[in-house]
Write a structure and sequence with these properties.
By secondary structure, this protein is α/β, with parallel strands linked by helices. The chain has a single domain, classed as Spore Coat Polysaccharide Biosynthesis Protein SpsA, Chain A, CATH 3.90.550. About 30% of the residues lie in helices and about 15% in strands. A 7-stranded mixed sheet has the order 3-2-1-4-6-5-7, with helices on both faces. It is globular, with a radius of gyration of 20 Å. The C terminus is likely disordered.
Length: about 260
Amino acid sequence: MTAATVDLSVVLPVYNEADNLPILWEELVAVLPGVASAAEVIFVDDGSTDGSADVVEGLAKTDSRIRFIRFETNAGLSAAFYAGFQAARGRIVVSMDSDLQNDPRDIPLLIARLDGADVVVGWRQIRRDGWLRRISSTVANRVRTRLTQDPVADSASSFRAMRRECLAAIPPYAGMHRFVPTLVKLAGFRVVEIPVSHRPRRFGASKFGVRNRALRAFIDLLAVRWMIRRRLRYRIAQRPCDLDADVSGAAARPQETREQPR
């Protein structure tokens, strides 16, 4: 398949999720035919040590829709998503976690909402995490909203559907996976949120906690705030004459004045 023939790419970062992957694949198999006539699923193994890579390779032998990227060592969630986005060939790209907390049955809801948007973020209104993680996420979202002036309620949600062209707005830097809605808005794209299911983790352990992400996330937030404050702001009053002006030398009529995408 080529980029022109793939309707949907699903990008799944994997880090020590061997027990979850067969179940997740069965759920995706049940959903994909109803949302895309041609789809691909890109698993990005982020240096797993529990046999996750072997599980994906086994699944790939049974279905040609699976594509597999394997890192030499653990590089982090931002790197896994970025590598998957670079490999994606679909007109629409869906990203989600591989820990079974995102429900693939919500994928059709995300894609349907793209009719009026460029990016649809899955809002985990009812979190199925431990109390400490729920509180830390609430605090983090409030701080993020305050510093970025972006009212997205669940910016760090990995469950999203995006038009392919939005991928260019995501920079290749660690931590940027938490700020995708804000970053694509800066590039002029339309972002909406819709409620999605959030399920308790069944196998394995969370890779993120308050101690190992709070300081780094705050530093990343300051970087995003810097980008917001330093973005270019201008309005076009008059455009150059159209190069296709008629041979009489009459200049083409200038286009309407409008604010440039941010």
